[in-house]
Amino acid sequence: MRAVSCLHGELSVVDLPSPRPAAGQLVLDVLRCGICGSDLHAKDHADELADAMNAVGYEHSVTSDTPVVFGHEFCGQVAERGRGVAKQFKVGASVVSFPMLRAHQGVHLTGLSPLAPGAYAEHVLAEAAMSFVVPNGLDSSIAALTEPMAVALHAVQRSDITKRDVAVVVGCGPVGLAVICHLKAKGVETIVASDFSPGRRALAQRCGAHIAVDPAQDSPYDSMGARKGVVSSVPQLAELGVGSMEKLRKLPGWNHIYRVVDKLGAATPKRPVIFECVGVPGIIDSILAASPFTSRIVVAGVCMGTDHFRPTVAIGKEIDLRFVFGYTPLEFRDTLYLLAEGKLDAAALVTGTVGLPGVDAAFRALGNPEVHAKIVIDPQSNTNEV
Fold it and tell me: For residues 279 and 86, what is the distance between their CA atoms, to the nearest angstrom?
């Protein structure tokens, strides 16, 4: 079969043996596979990724000196079934799969390990237990977005955001745009998007952002300035605290009133829920410095290098800092059905399609934020440019 292999940071089309299914596995004819930001990072920073994965106990990640076939965002058609596969996975059925594969006496990350080749190829292996038949005739390009959209769903669910909270999405690449899509589907009333790129700000508004801000010109948090109870500085916090107590102490039983107000959540400053979707050194510290007091920051951007931030700033503002990674099988399944039922609209993310010969050009094109968000691969196409 034809596949795209990465070695020493170079992408090339190669011929590899077609996979055969073990018990409980499927061989899929790849219909579409998305190019993920993780793939872009892994191409040029494989060894840094390997170091990070080693730190969490996974020793079989991609490295610069071992050939690997990327591709963990895919939709495929069942071509062959292993023993014990459920009847629902009929030959010809379109499926999406959680990118983990049982192989070499372990479970490995499809497309991010040389032990589990991914879907930058004509065929890919998948675990039937981790696969889902695509419902409602969902287009394969949209079905292939199940994986990145599940990443965003996990981030939104971990944020505990409510419809009445203000959401601030910092960075409108594919992850940020996917988060915005989910926030819109959830009915969040105020979604602020922040990105230096005019093209990405326009995409953010197509995905559901109510306000799009160029951070070179304006702060994404200024839109909260007029909201009652938002605190952005120590003097403002001190005035709020002293002023409130001056009023309360004039009332009999003020402490009982205070307890009721506190229990209702009205005694602390209002705060946005901020999604960090950039993943470069320094971004967390800059968000800590600029965000209002008691903000909740959900870190979804993948920073490949060492980063530093000032804990005293986070402590002084009582910032809630949460890091997210991946998704659960249920979130993966639910994302597929949200897409298939039209409750989640991610069509704006797909901005180009290439064949296997065009993958290298697609990687280069994705370096320009004004042109593309998500490019998908069609292994049956010979298109070599986007």
Answer: 40
**Which residue, chain included where needed, has tokens 């009333």?**
189
Q: Which residues of 321-338 are buried (b: 16+ CB within 10 A; e: fewer)?
A: beebeebeeebbbbbbbb
Separation of CA 191 from chain center: 17
Q: 56-65, 291-300, 329-338: which has the minimum mean pLDDT?
A: 56-65
Query: The pTM is what?
Result: 0.90
In angstroms, rounded to a whole number, what is the distance separating the alpha carbons of residues 23 and 250?
Answer: 74
Contacts of residue 6, Cβ cutoff 8 Å, sequence gap at least 6: 42, 43, 46, 62, 67, 68, 69, 70
d(CA 201, CA 182): 17
The string of pLDDT tens digits covering residues 121-172 is: 999 999 999 999 999 999 999 999 999 999 999 999 999 999 999 999 999 9
Measured distance CA(45)–CA(117) in Å, rounded: 18
Task: Please report which helix (H) or strand (E) contains residue 47, including its range.
Answer: helix 37-55
